[in-house]
Write a structure and sequence with these properties.
49% helix, Glutathione S-transferase Yfyf (Class Pi), Chain A, domain 2, 203 residues, 8 helices, five-stranded mixed sheet, alpha+beta, Glutaredoxin
């Protein structure tokens, strides 16, 4: 398998999961603005949507959309136990969390990564992110370690990556101590450290 990624982007969640499951894979960075991969490939020819992650399977099939990639990997490597059993309420909870992270929290950060966003748009984005963080802070206030059940899952990988964008956008997670503790918990995992090192995010 090959993962096309952009350092620190949402594709980091897929990268983390690939390392969690111990899969054999390659990674190739993508410059989404230039539309080129590190080896000079036309990225739009790989994914016409123009964004990461893209998982290329050994048979050449291409899979896009982070939540889909994460669940595919969890199902393809069930021994890693990164997702509850399909059809269970726990699995529905995991899908609920993945969908919310993608559609709500991830999108809320958008203007903070856009060069052309106005000060007003960025301020509105910070307010929106804070409201989403308030919801996660409340959810984590029951003392749970992980989002679904008592095991680390693909939902945790995704929430970690997007919540960690606070550190790149000047948002202080100290305002949300339960969420901050969650981010620190995930950041300490071996697979997370190795993925972030491979992407040049940490040393």
């Amino acid at each position: 398998m090959k993962l096309f990624y952009k350092p620190g982007a949402c594709s980091l969640a897929s990268h983390i999961v690939l390392r969690e499951i111990g899969a054999s894979f390659e990674i190739e960075a993508v410059d989404t603005k230039a539309g080129k991969t590190a080896s000079g490939l036309d990225f739009k020819a790989i994914n016409p949507k123009g964004y990461v992650p893209v998982l290329q399977l050994d048979d050449g099939a291409i899979l896009t959309e982070g939540a889909a990639v994460l669940q595919f990997l969890a199902d393809r490597f069930p021994d890693a136990a990164l997702a509850p059993e399909a059809g269970s309420i726990a699995r529905a909870r995991l899908q609920e969390q993945l969908n919310w992270t993608a559609a709500e929290l991830h999108k809320a950060f958008g203007p903070l990564f856009q060069d052309k966003a106005t000060d007003a748009q960025q301020a509105q984005a910070r307010t929106a992110v804070a409201a989403k963080f308030d919801l996660m802070e409340d959810q984590l206030s029951d003392g749970r370690t992980w989002l679904v059940g008592d095991r680390f899952s693909v939902a945790d990988a995704y929430l970690f990556v997007v919540s960690n964008w606070a550190n790149f956008t000047g948002i202080d997670l100290a305002r949300w101590p339960n969420l901050a503790a969650f981010v620190n918990r995930v950041a300490a995992r071996t697979a997370v450290v190795s993925a972030m090192q491979a992407e040049g995010l940490i040393q």
